[in-house]
Amino acid sequence: MTATLEAAAPSPAGEIPSFTVTLRIRRFNPEVSEEATWEDFTVEAHGTDRILDALHKIKWDEDGSLTFRRSCAHGVCGSDAMRINGRNRLACKTLLKDVNPDKPITVEPIKGLPVVKDLVVDMEPFFASYREIMPFLITSGNEPSKERYQSPEDRAKFDDTTKCILCAACTSSCPVFWTDGQYFGPAAIVNAHRFIFDSRDEGGSQRLEILNDKEGVWRCRTTFNCTEACPRGIEVTKAIQEVKRAMITRAF
Amino acid sequence: MQTHQYDVVIVGAGGAGMRAALESSKEARTAVISKLYPTRSHTGAAQGGMAAALANVEDDNWEWHTFDTVKGGDYLVDQDAAEILAKEAIESVLDLERMGLPFNRTPEGKIDQRRFGGHTRDHGQSAVRRACYAADRTGHMILQTLYQNCVKQDVEFFNEFYVLDLITDHDLTTEEIADGEEVNATGVVAYDLATGEIHVFQAKAIIFATGGAGKIFKTTSNAHTLTGDGMALAYRRGLPLEDMEFFQFHPTGLAGLGILLSEAARGEGGILRNSEGERFMERYAPTIKDLAPRDIVARSMANEVREGRGAGPNKDYVLLDLTHLEPAHIDAKLPDITEFARTYLGIEPYTEPVPVYPTAHYAMGGVPTNIKGEVLRDGVNVVKGLYAAGEVACVSVHGSNRLGTNSLLDINVFGKRSGRAAAEYAKTASFHELPEDPTVRVVEQLDEMRNRPDGERIADIRKALQDTMDLNAQVFRTGDSLNAALADIRELQKRYRNASVQDKGKLFNTDLLEAIELGFLLDIAEVTVVAAINRKESRGGHYREDFPNRDDANYMLHTMAYRRPTAASDQAEGHVEGYFDHVEEFDGYKVVLGSKPVVQTRYEPMERKY
């Protein structure tokens, strides 16, 4: 008793028939060669298939050595950010039909982080920046015996930046980050914003001081790549602007 | 090979693992080993909320919550554990708020609460607002908040390390261990995905928090990585698994995809309709309708489809109707799930109903523990130094059917308890000697898989497993369908022994790990089906069409399944002639079933009506 949306039956998604699609994938395996190469794979796809489905088809039916991260497969765990036709996206949230399957679709690892194998990058530098901005609630005095109160209006001020799943799509789309790996990058700033604008938090000035560093928010060139890349629809550039403004207006 | 020594080793960095780590790392030298980066864990996919009788928006108390949990689990719940769950829920939610979790708020600024399936006021009178939530991404917020606090507390993680063996000082698979004799867990063996290196972690206390096993099914809300690793490792080392026949099918998976659409959609007023536009839940649960517990709603939906009232061209799903709700309300309370409908099915929930069908969601069963989180090696005796919490464990607070919002609660209450208990134990315990080469089993297994030159593809075997489980062991089961599933699993276990991987490398070899994970899935599917064959009654998530009624006289017991050598006795502890006596032989081992009593305190089993 399983509902099916196989291509043989018209799907409620608008009856998109099966089609063939070519993925042009950037391959790299340091056990084989120091050079990265492009490799084309052609697979049969169904109407609602995502890039991740096509990658799985390749890995499971053609070449088991194709390597990528994935877990939840519906856009909440942040494992499978990659560069698809030159734009950072989550493979599990990008439908093949939406990226022009008539031409080969290029799939590369996200930029600015060391490539480990095929589409897998070393995420450690990314998480190191995240940890530096003190991504946790800072308070003083005794804990209240019940919850801390917060008005719905105050809660709304940082709602957008609580959505971050740390996929690195934003940071690895940033031209400043590409040329300067020391730059904190948009994701770290987004997570600083999440606490700086939380009415319960008392660590705002410390975080602003950290981000006032030469590798901090002032390096942002407002290119909006990050906002376009965010699979969660966070207005990343706006959040960075709000942090900049807080730096100017708040005394610390 | 590298070796490490920690007082406490926690396996898994989802909600339960990190909640445990926040406790134990304050008191003892702690390492968390996780096959994923912590923020990738599937706790983050939980949506609707976390139950606690805060009574912030209406009258409520923990006793009502306990009752609902017991009734929701069709009385197979251990009532002492359910009482702890409901009582400690309140402090657990407050803990998270104080850690920084951004809950939705009431106009006065308190944590807001909403309705959820099976949660009622005054023992079933009407639905109650008990679920504390953050939009429809409560699990995401819990996972992030716990990770943030792990960063704050400088918890040590080993990320992308796969634990592939549990070491104990007695071989429980073969030795006869006397009642009361001490058995110790002494360490785990892990595989570093990035380098392919083997690491041995010697520990005084080990906490398994490895999550569920939803990938035994094809249609599931679970992540690709939920392959029952911890359950399978415990089982292979001779520990029992409890109540594995009870698997929850969440009513509202996106049709054909299985992606979860939270019950919060119905908590906020969404309605299930069949092809005739009828609100069919009025027929199945007249009092609380669409907010009946998940097993009842899932069965009702499947029944509508079976009787020809399914929607769509193949009449194989029903519709979740949100079109009568204000778009602003949907945006505020259900932003993520409505986006899933748009992204994956191209459906606009403001104006169109969403195609939904039950999706495999949650294992009620697992590694048996007591209320401290200590793992049981039979009905009574614990394995010293071994703990389990979260979906991998069976306390049992969920009985035969878990209520929505009780799993985010479970990971917090029992994650915290097991973390504290493990650290406390580690303070007085000493390290136990490891065997001369603790890695031998893992190395052999990996080498064999890697070196087998040409064999069948892992993916083909996995697909066949998932297909047969969906076909034969889903919402509706019969003796025949389950025996068909078991025959398929036997065949697949054989094929698995000749499967091979294509990636023969050391570095980041996910091909190899998928192969190892398939071995776990096969074992978990096998024990699930054997337990389901044995239970000839219908209760909670386990519905036998050939035995449609609950049978308290004979089956008000937890199933305990053991893997034993072929030569071992056919009788396990709790053997009941004619009821808990099933044995299945496989090549080289057998599965033997016994039982364990259900703890009843204040609630007598009643007929379950909503």
Automatic annotation (TrEMBL), chain A:
Q: What is this protein called?
A: Fumarate reductase iron-sulfur subunit
Record keywords: 2Fe-2S, 3Fe-4S, 4Fe-4S, Iron, Iron-sulfur, Metal-binding, Oxidoreductase, Tricarboxylic acid cycle
Family assignment from sequence similarity: Belongs to the succinate dehydrogenase/fumarate reductase iron-sulfur protein family.
UniProt superkingdom: Bacteria
Against Gene3D superfamilies, the record matches this protein to:
3.10.20.30, Alpha-helical ferredoxin
Textual note on the cofactor: Binds 1 [4Fe-4S] cluster. Binds 1 [3Fe-4S] cluster.
What is this enzyme's catalytic activity, as reactions?
Answer: a menaquinone + succinate = a menaquinol + fumarate
Q: Which residues form the 2Fe-2S ferredoxin-type domain?
A: 19-113
Which residue numbers delimit the 4Fe-4S ferredoxin-type domain? 154-176
The organism is Promicromonospora kroppenstedtii
UniProtKB/TrEMBL annotation, chain B:
User: Could you tell me which pathway this protein works in?
Assistant: Carbohydrate metabolism; tricarboxylic acid cycle; fumarate from succinate (bacterial route): step 1/1
Q: What membrane topology does the annotation report for this chain?
A: Peripheral membrane protein
Keyword set, alphabetical order: Electron transport, FAD, Flavoprotein, Membrane, Oxidoreductase, Transport, Tricarboxylic acid cycle
Q: Which cell locations does it reside in? A: Membrane
Can you state which reaction this protein catalyses? a quinone + succinate = fumarate + a quinol
Residue ranges occupied by any Fumarate reductase/succinate dehydrogenase flavoprotein-like C-terminal domain in the UniProt entry = 462-610
User: Which InterPro entries has this protein been placed in?
Assistant: FAD-dep_OxRdtase_2_FAD-bd, FAD/NAD-bd_sf, FRD_SDH_FAD_BS, Fum_R/Succ_DH_flav-like_C_sf, Fum_Rdtase/Succ_DH_flav-like_C, SdhA/FrdA/AprA, Succ_DH/fumarate_Rdtase_cat_sf, Succ_DH_flav_su_fwd
Q: Which PROSITE patterns match?
A: FRD_SDH_FAD_BINDING
Q: Where is the FAD-dependent oxidoreductase 2 FAD-binding domain?
A: 7-408
Give the EC number(s) under which this enzyme is classified.
1.3.5.1
* UniProt superkingdom: Bacteria
Q: Which cofactor does it need?
A: FAD
A Pfam family of this chain: Succ_DH_flav_C
Assigned protein family:
Belongs to the FAD-dependent oxidoreductase 2 family. FRD/SDH subfamily.
Name the record gives this protein: Succinate dehydrogenase flavoprotein subunit
The species this protein was found in: Promicromonospora kroppenstedtii
What is the gene called? sdhA
